[in-house]
Amino acid sequence: MRTAYKCRAYPTPEQAAVLNRTFGCVRVVWNQTLAWRHRRWHEEQTSTNMPQANAFLTQLKRTEEFAWLNEVSSVPLQQVLRTQQRAFANFFAKRARYPRFKSRRGRQSAEYTRSGFRWRDGHLYLAKMDAPLEFVWSWPEVDPAGFTPTTVTISRDPDGRWYVSLAVETETSPEYPESLPAAGAAVGIDLGVTDFAVLSTGEKIANPRHLERRAKNLARYQRRMARKTKGSNNRAKAKAKVARAHTKIREARRDFLHKTSTRLVRDHDLIVIEDLNVRGMLRNRSLARAISGCGWGEFRRQLEYKTTRYGRHLVVIDRWYPSSKTCSACGHLLAELSLSTRHWSCPGCGTRHDRDVNAAKNILAAGRAVSACGGEVRHPGNRMRSPGKQESKPATVGIPQLRLRGGSQPNLPFT
Ligand SMILES: [Zn+2]
Fold first, then answer.
1. Do residues 30 and 128 both lie within one domain?
2. How much is the pLDDT for 390?
3. Is there a domain that residue 289 lies in?
4. Shared-domain flag, residues 21 and 112
5. 336 CA distance to ligand 1 middle (Å)
């Protein structure tokens, strides 16, 4: 498994100069190669493979205009070509947008593979540098001297902070050498807008307050920047503050998502979420701000790799599943439930429901059915079945009462 450790780096002025020059070269190689590919495609209708891109770089370095590319380590420049090749592969596979030109003002980075750095007892020596690069290690339980990074990425944020990211191949994560003991609990999660998430246990996880405050700060800095003359020193200063505010929001959100996902994975053997079409929802502009601020996509990614890492189970159910409109107690399906209705009583069994908690309970039940069947939950019209109990329930649309293999009623705490 590949694990990456990213921490703050503190290069000396000399090292910073070497790195800045390297960033410049990386950017030029990216942009020149991108423009060249673009021309080849539009004028000759030819696509470009890795050896051709390599040949182009060799040629570029021989020209007088770009001879200075030879002054920095060739490793990050080679690596840029590989990254670009991947970016195009993703574009052609419709997984990503067309690669864009890199700006001098954005985040800068350089990637070093094994031939571009040395790792000795937890010290990092980059090519073309004599002294090790200083960085602050923030995982006291992990000894960096004990492993060998496969790739090292140095980056500089627009606000001027430096980072080093170490990619390490591990059998299991060094932080959690074995999967955790069974937690004896399962949870369904309903991701929301008012609350970040509502759990089938009834717990509501609110969006953190400080994120809102930081967002207000950002808006204030942005207004200030807009008032400064373009190209002026004051504008540059205001811009750095905006960049810093952006970073703070990003870090606070990441921190919140990590804490939440770690806790959920630690406390549950089975986690069930809905496959939300975040992209589609972002097109709905009234929801867009709230959702893009929530980081659902990132949250799901974290749940995925953490459940794998800890030996837990994650089930993602179909997003068309009527989790809000179905009674989690009796399976009754409402014809209509408006978004503004926060509480409702089931006409079938009379149970009073909190809209989101009921949805989370249904999500959990659907996930359990999936993990018991080993199958998939599909459109609401398709009835879900538990093995061996197919005859026991009429063809109601919605969620049948939960049954486990062998037909015994489950003895689980959170249904
Ligand atoms: Zn009911």
1. yes
2. 33
3. yes
4. yes
5. 15
Q: What are residue 270's DSSP bridge partners? A: 186, 313
Note whether 143 and 236 are same-domain residues.
no
Centre of ligand 1 from the C-alpha of residue 348, in Å: 5
Structure tokens at 212: 């809102």
CB-proximal residues (5 Å) to ion ligand 1: 327, 329-330, 332, 346, 348-349
Residues 50 and 118 in one domain: yes
- Separation of CA 400 and ligand 1 centre (Å): 11
Q: How far apart are CA 297 and CA 97, in angstroms?
A: 17
Determine the Cα angle at 50 with ends 47 and 55, to 5°: 95
| Count of structural domains within the chain | 2
Mean pLDDT of the chain: 82
DSSP letter at 135 equals B
Q: Which residues are catalytic?
A: 190, 274, 356
Ligand 1: centre distance to CA 351 (Å):
6
Query: Could you tell me the pTM of the whole model?
Result: 0.59
**Distance from C-alpha of 3 to C-alpha of 176, rounded to nearest angstrom:** 12
Asked whether the predicted pLDDT for residue 13 surpasses 90, the reply is: yes
Q: Where in the sequence is the domain holding 155, given as residue range(s)? A: 2-169
208, 290: one domain: yes
C-alpha 31 to ligand 1 mean position (Å) = 61
Tokens matching residue 80: 């840029």
pLDDT in tens, 307-324: 888 888 999 887 777 888
Residue 315, strand partner residues: 272
The whole-angstrom separation of Cα 111 and Cα 308 is 27
For 33, residues 6+ apart whose C-beta sits below 8 A from its C-beta are 53, 56, 57, 80, 81, 84
Is the distance from CB of 371 to CB of 312 less than 8 angstroms? no
State how far the Cα of 186 lies from the Cα of 414, in Å rounded to an integer. 7
Residue with tokens 């539009």: 42
191 C-alpha to center of ligand 1: Å? 22
At 160-182, the pLDDT tens digits run: 899 999 998 866 544 544 567 88
Note whether 111 and 20 are same-domain residues: yes
Pairing of strands 117-120, 197-199: unpaired
Q: Is residue 59 part of a domain?
A: yes
Q: Is 98 helix (H, G, I), strand (E, B) or coil?
A: coil
Residues 209 and 158 in one domain: no
Query: Ligand 1 centre and the CA of 398: distance in Å?
Result: 11
